[in-house]
C-alpha cells in the first residue's frame, strides 16, 4: 500500500503519518512545511511536497506536473487521507470576513475534493483504494460562532455519502471524526474571543481536565480502522463509536 497524507507535518496528521510509516508504507506528505522528525526517521519511505492547499492554482499546477500520478503508478493498494484543515474563522456572520471564509472553504472543502478526484483518476487499475476525510463532530452538531467550520465539515461528510453512491470499483471512502484531539486547532479555539464562541468554557475544561486525546493515541486507533475490512462500510463514522 502507498499513502498520501495532507497536513502531515504536525498534529494528528504527523501522528497518523508516523503510524503508517512505522508499518513500512511509502508515503507522500503534502503540507505547507516539512517534518524534520519524520524525514529523519523515515526518509527512505517519505516524500514531502510543500504546497499551500489554500492556493488552488498551485495545487492544480502540481497535479498537472504528474508527481501524484508517478507516486501512485506502481501502487497495489492506495490510501488518501485528507487531514489538513483549519478551524478559523470562529465568529458569527458579520464578523467572519470574506477572505477568512473563502480560505476555510478552499482548505477544508475544495482541496480534499480536488485531491479525491485526482487520486481516483490516477488509480484506475488499483483494486483497493481508500479515502479518508478527517471530519468532526461539528459536522452534525451546531456550535455558535463555528458556522463556517461546521459547514465545511458537513460538506465532507455529505461528499463521502455521495461518493459511496457512485460505487466506483475498488473505492472505499469514509468521513471519519477522530474525537477531541490535543492539537493546535484546540489551542486556537481556546484563544478565541469568548463573545464569538460561547462554547469556549467547555473546550477550556477539556484541556484542563485532561480529556483531550493525544494525537499518537488517536492515530493508534484510527490507522487500524482505516486499514481494516470494515472501513468504508459506513461513509460517515466517529472513531469514538468504533470498538477498539
TrEMBL record:
It is found in: Cytoplasm. GO terms for biological process: tetrahydrobiopterin biosynthetic process. GO terms for cellular component: cytoplasm. Keywords: Cytoplasm, NADP, Oxidoreductase. It holds the Pfam family adh_short. GO terms for molecular function: sepiapterin reductase (NADP+) activity. InterPro entries: Biopterin_syn/organic_redct, NAD(P)-bd_dom_sf, SDR_fam. PANTHER family: SEPIAPTERIN REDUCTASE. This is SDR family oxidoreductase.
Amino acid at each position: 500500500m502507498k499513502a498520501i497524507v495532507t497536513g502531515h507535518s504536525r498534529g494528528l496528521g504527523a501522528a497518523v503519518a508516523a503510524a503508517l510509516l512505522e508499518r513500512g508504507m511509502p508515503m507522500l506528505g503534502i503540507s505547507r512545511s516539512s517534518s524534520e522528525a519524520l524525514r529523519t526517521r523515515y526518509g527512505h519511505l517519505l516524500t514531502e511536497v510543500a504546497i499551500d492547499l489554500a492556493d488552488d492554482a498551485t495545487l492544480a499546477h502540481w497535479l498537472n506536473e504528474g508527481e501524484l500520478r508517478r507516486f501512485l503508478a506502481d501502487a497495489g493498494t492506495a490510501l488518501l487521507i485528507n487531514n489538513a484543515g483549519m478551524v478559523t474563522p470562529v465568529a458569527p456572520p458579520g464578523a467572519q470576513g470574506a477572505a477568512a471564509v473563502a480560505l476555510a472553504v478552499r482548505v477544508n472543502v475544495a482541496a480534499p475534493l480536488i485531491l479525491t478526484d485526482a487520486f481516483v483518476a490516477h488509480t484506475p487499475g488499483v483494486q483497493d483504494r481508500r479515502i479518508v476525510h478527517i471530519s468532526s463532530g461539528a459536522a452534525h452538531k451546531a456550535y455558535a460562532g463555528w458556522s463556517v467550520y461546521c459547514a465545511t465539515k458537513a460538506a465532507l461528510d455529505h461528499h463521502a455519502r455521495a461518493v459511496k453512491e457512485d460505487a466506483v470499483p475498488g473505492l472505499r471512502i469514509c468521513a471519519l471524526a477522530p474525537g477531541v484531539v490535543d492539537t493546535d486547532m484546540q489551542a486556537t479555539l481556546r484563544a478565541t474571543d469568548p463573545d464569538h464562541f460561547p462554547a469556549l468554557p467547555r473546550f477550556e475544561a477539556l484541556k484542563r481536565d485532561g480529556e483531550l486525546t493525544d494525537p499518537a493515541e488517536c492515530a493508534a486507533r484510527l490507522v487500524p480502522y482505516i486499514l481494516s475490512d470494515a472501513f468504508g462500510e459506513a461513509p460517515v463514522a466517529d472513531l469514538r463509536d468504533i470498538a477498539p
